[in-house]
Amino acid sequence: MILPIVAYGDPVLKKVGEDIDQNYPDLNVLIDNMFETMYNAYGVGLAAPQIGLPIRLFVIDATPFAEDEDLTKEEQETLKGFKRVFINATIIEEEGEEWAFNEGCLSIPDVREDVFRKPKITIEYLDENFEEKTEVFDGLVARVIQHEYDHIEGVLFTDKLSALKKRLIKGRLANISKGKINVDYRMRFPAQKKKR
């Protein structure tokens, strides 16, 4: 089922997510719905707060990035088929010199900005079978994970921008929160919450 994506301005996007356990109701259905919602919006990642749930869960399918011809064959292979579920994730280390990449977000449509992040991360998480994992990722995969991880920490990519950049996009962000934007996927806007 395709779920509405919560728009910028909704308080759920600023909450730190809660850990969940195997008894979380209909977790497999939720994960399937999150992937379906993400694909419908042509995203590569989706976090539970983006569908209104303040829990530590996000999904990623970085396959679309594999078609980027600027990447090495090795990077393309890493991205191809990189589909994961992250539950109760904790980034335990970020390493390297920060690099800029133009990021966007399904909750903040039509706003893209360069964000600086470290290129290599070590992350602990549970997969969809609640098996514990500790893995190291780098490059674009690390960046997608960091972006989605920020969501479960109540952080948006716009929070990482300079004061000047924030001022420049302030009006666009206000319009998004009011629903004054055209998108080709389902969204839930803070102003509409009471109506639905």
Automatic annotation (TrEMBL):
Ranges in coiled-coil conformation: none
Binding residue positions for Fe cation: 105, 147, 151
A GO biological-process term: translation
One Pfam family recorded for the sequence: Pep_deformylase
Positions annotated as active site in the UniProt record: 148
Main enzyme class: hydrolase
GO molecular function: metal ion binding; peptide deformylase activity
Catalytic activity: N-terminal N-formyl-L-methionyl-[peptide] + H2O = N-terminal L-methionyl-[peptide] + formate
EC number: 3.5.1.88
Keyword annotations of the record: Hydrolase, Iron, Metal-binding, Protein biosynthesis
Cofactor: Fe(2+)
Source organism superkingdom: Bacteria
Classification via Gene3D superfamilies: Peptide deformylase (3.90.45.10)
Free-text remark on how the cofactor is bound: Binds 1 Fe(2+) ion.
Keyword Hydrolase applies: yes
PANTHER family per UniProt: PEPTIDE DEFORMYLASE
Family: Belongs to the polypeptide deformylase family.
Function: Removes the formyl group from the N-terminal Met of newly synthesized proteins. Requires at least a dipeptide for an efficient rate of reaction. N-terminal L-methionine is a prerequisite for activity but the enzyme has broad specificity at other positions.
Identification of the protein by name: Peptide deformylase
Organism: Aestuariibaculum marinum
Gene: def
